[in-house]
Amino acid sequence: MIPDYAVLDPKPTLSLPPFITACTGMDALSHAIEAYIGNSTTKKTRAYALKVTKLIFENIYKVYEGGNDLEARSNMFDAAFYAGHAFTVSYVDMCRRLLIHWVKNIILRMD
What we know:
The chain has 4 helices and no strands.
């Protein structure tokens, strides 16, 4: 599933706790890494992955320590967008889909 539009407005995230902010940034970074090293990568997806990594390393500490930095939050939104795009185009999200299915349908039903 690839969306036609994405709303990248950092203002609603200003009240997120630092831990959640860090986790979402690390999630985007993991997407970028998978998109870079996956078996179906392209020059474009690897370029996006590198751009994402740079954006995250330049901004994650800023949004973690000073959550009101709109420019840094906007850069993190861009990083998440490009990471998602690279991740999807590189076909590495299949493992995640299988894991989510497994957790929802097997692990959670065990309780």
